[in-house]
Specification:
Serine Threonine Protein Phosphatase 5, Tetratricopeptide repeat; 19 helices; globular
Length: 520
């Protein structure tokens, strides 16, 4: 690990008053880690800093007009999504072409950022685990803060282990030059052991309230959803189903369609924060922390002639026509102005954007694009359909296809159906499938439901199966072994494509680190 860990900028964050929903940033001065956890207020402020640093920002921060959040680049490996500015943002090009091995130096700056920011968050969390128990404060509040700290340590390690494989595992904060800064890579299974332990503690100790009800703080259901994802990633299916069912039995529920147009569930998800469907989200606000370039990702570059609130529009994460064929023609998600769109008229000036290739309607914040230039829509990390699909797959893999498993999958399929097919009808049909076919149907629904939230590569990585989307038959998706398969750009997957390279800068700093196989 980097020798600057002990010099972390511990950017504290303090809760604002009741008129503001945000965890507002408030930078602190040169204090030691122990001093940062000296009392209730300091502990709260430092734990708050974890909400906006490290792994969560890999999914939610749209800091550039030309390349999306780091997690979006993983999907480029499939060839089903492309960045039209990949000539400049070459990490996207080399991911799509599966040539990262020959271009390690080009992608290393991104790898540095992932590594640095995640380990900074982990170091803060490690200090919290060490010092919070000794603070003189209300015991219930202490237990909750400690559980939040463990959640973020686990969340950051989860992102790192999926990205790099075996990584250095540290549970003690680096506070002085005397601390051990250079650690060996730890076996993946050992990393997952810590992740599971932290998340199980968080599930046990956090309040049983939704993220919105807790004032946008981590609660039991966020921790349970993350634990379910962690179990699923490892193939621990029964455990994954059990954790997912904690969420399913919570106050969370699916957003309903009012109609199949602009009042659909998918449009509500696009425009409305704090829906009961949303389990965990990143907050955005026009004053404290707006959503950056998110809304510009909804269009192609020609949109600059239609809007005047943003100087750049770019299709930094655009689906190929082959990917769009993942949906059958009766699927609501593929209809115009649900997930994707081809035409928009600005109501302020009457100018119209049209495109032969789809923009991503799901990212569009109309108020930001037409009036304010500052996006406020929160970014959703986890939604209720994911709990349903994890439980469905977990049950089918561990005990077989049951009415319960079929019912969970049926809820996701019924909402996306435009012909009025009920959950009961879907349940009956799905229950007749073999376990293998049922599980693949879960994979298909995950592909269709979450393509814009950067979960596709995680599923491919855990199953070691690549989804082959038909170019001729809408809705047809087959699966083939990942290694040896061709992605949608015609590149062949190698074993070394399963992980990203550790940055050469990190290896130079820490000679105990070794590079992932296949990379320069």
């Amino acid at each position: 690990m980097k020798n600057k860990l002990f010099l972390l900028l511990l950017a504290g964050m303090a809760l604002t008053t009741s008129c503001n929903k945000f965890l507002e940033e408030e930078p602190r001065s040169n204090l030691s880690l122990e001093q940062y956890y000296a009392n209730d207020g300091q502990a709260m402020a430092t734990v708050n800093s974890l909400y906006r640093r490290g792994a969560p920002s890999r999914y939610s921060v749209a800091a550039s007009a030309y390349v999306g959040p780091t997690a979006s680049i993983n999907t480029m490996l499939t060839g089903y999504f492309i960045n039209t500015y990949e000539g400049q943002e070459q990490i996207c090009l080399f991911a799509r072409q599966l040539t990262r091995q020959q271009n390690t130096s080009v992608v290393s700056s991104t790898m540095n950022t992932i590594w640095d920011e995640s380990y900074k968050a982990i170091n803060i969390a490690n200090a919290g685990v060490k010092y919070i128990p000794g603070i003189n404060m209300d015991e219930s509040r202490k237990k909750t803060l400690l559980a939040e700290t463990k959640f973020f340590r686990a969340y950051n390690y989860f992102y790192l282990v999926k990205t790099f494989g075996a990584i250095p595992l540290s549970v003690k904060p680096n506070e002085t030059l005397a601390d051990e800064l250079y650690l060996d890579r730890t076996d993946v299974a050992k990393v997952y052991e810590l992740i599971e332990t932290d998340l199980k503690d968080a599930v046990a100790d956090l309040p049983a309230a939704t993220f919105a009800a807790r004032g946008h703080r981590i609660g039991k259901y966020v921790a349970a959803m993350t634990l379910a994802s962690v179990y699923l990633q490892q193939g621990k299916y029964a455990d994954a189903a059990a954790a997912a069912k904690i969420v399913i039995n919570s106050p969370h529920k699916m957003t309903a369609n009012v109609d199949l147009q602009f009042n659909s569930a998918y449009n509500k998800l696009r425009t409305t924060d704090d829906l009961e469907e949303v389990i965990y989200a990143q907050e955005y606000d026009a004053t404290i922390n707006n959503s950056g370039w998110w809304t510009t990702y909804a269009f192609s570059s020609s949109a600059t002639s239609v809007f005047d609130k943003y100087s750049i529009f770019e299709r930094i994460y655009g689906p190929t026509n082959q990917f769009l064929n993942a949906y059958n023609t009766k699927d609501l998600r593929i209809q115009p102005n649900q997930f994707f769109h081809y035409k928009y008229t600005n109501p302020v000036n009457g100018k119209t954007w049209t495109s032969d290739v789809p923009g991503i309607w799901y990212y569009f914040d109309e108020q930001a694009a037409t009036v304010t230039g500052r996006g406020t829509k929160d970014w959703n990390f986890y939604r209720f359909p994911e709990a349903l699909l994890i439980a469905a797959e977990g049950i089918a893999k561990s005990t077989g296809v049951s009415a319960e498993a079929a019912g969970y999958l049926a809820q996701v399929k019924a909402r996306a159906n435009t012909e009025g097919k009920t959950v009961a009808t879907w349940t009956t049909e799905l229950q007749a499938l073999s376990a293998d076919d049922f599980v693949k149907e879960c994979w298909r629904e995950r592909l269709r439901e979450f393509p814009l939230e950067f979960k596709m590569w995680d599923d491919i990585l855990r199953t070691k199966m690549f989804p082959v989307i038909s170019t001729t038959e809408a809705g047809k998706i087959d699966f083939v072994p990942l290694v040896g398969a061709k992605n949608a750009s015609g590149a062949t997957f190698k074993e070394s494509d399963l992980l990203w390279p550790i940055s050469p800068d990190e290896i130079q700093r820490n000679n105990k680190l070794t590079q992932n196989p296949g990379y320069q």
